[in-house]
Amino acid sequence: xxxxxxxxxxxxxxxxxxxxxxxxxxxxxxxxxxxxxxxxxxxxxxxxxxxxxxxxxxxxxxxxxxxxxxxxxxxxxxxxx
Length: 81
Prior knowledge:
7 strands
């Protein structure tokens, strides 16, 4: 059987970081119907990513998640579902 399956390309979203007092503010644009979760690692060699708080439901606006400045560096990623 011959068939085609069209699969949408993954969304490309920029995660923007800024500093506000003793917090890092991670901001990203959202779309209604999608859920966004920010994860972090203290070292890229760590075996797992850790969730930074609860997931955020998109509504078409720019959402922000805060992380306290406690480490000398951290690595972040944004998962969209």
